[in-house]
Amino acid sequence: xxxxxxxxxxxxxxxxxxxxCILSVLNQDYHNIEYIIVDPGSTDGSREIINKYxxxxxxxxxxxxxxxADGLNKGFNLATGDIFYFLNSDDVLEPxxxxxxxxxxxxxxxxxxxxxxxxxxxxxxxxxxRFYSDRxxxxxxxxxxxxxxxxxxxxxxxxxRNVNGFNSLNRIAWDGELFVDMALDGARFSIINDFLSGFxxxxxxxxxxxxxxxERILFSKRIYxxxxxxxxxxxxxxxxxxxxxxxxILNYRDTFQRILHGPVFGAKK
Length: 269
Known about the structure:
By secondary structure, the chain is of the alpha/beta class. The protein is built from 10 helices and 9 strands. It has a single domain (5-268), classed as Spore Coat Polysaccharide Biosynthesis Protein SpsA, Chain A (Alpha-Beta Complex). The radius of gyration is 18 Å and the shape is globular.
């Protein structure tokens, strides 16, 4: 059942979080891990912390890159594991997660991508609320109504390579496009009902900002076209709005958390 798990972390000026991220990987109780860190040019002391643990990190890339998606591709191009995972430098893995994931893939050979849930945490690591991943659906994803926690999603290396990795031109939601690409290629998705990560909200983070920016609108249109082969018309836009509300019913646990604690993603703006 022993599998090599390749984990890539992209880091850029997150000195206040990077050590917590690194330790959350190094302290896992599963030791067949290939850990790769990519930092294209931090100037805030992050690189010094990374070098502090270099004897425990498999590969460190300090070369410039063309954005987060390109940096992740560079990291995974060096990865040799059977299972892939990426952890942003401001997020953390929960304890003893990797062993659970390896076991899950072993007993579920038909599954290519598995997602768990996340704790949403603040800059100090305090838990703000639970985030529950949806069951992935291309029809819902076309309307941005199928949301899985990137920080709690693992996938087989072959599925990543089959779609040539991330779209390096995507600066909005490179993880979401990767999941769509893998689904279109036939990857089979599943959910594990467990909290696998801490997804951090803070002022410098990307997620949650620019939801209605021109770039985000163009991204949404492109993903819809990628799934359906046509641009959204008035009818499909209305149907998409319905699906967004349907998601709130289908994923009632996450909806309840938002009602109880508020849309804490706003802290990322």
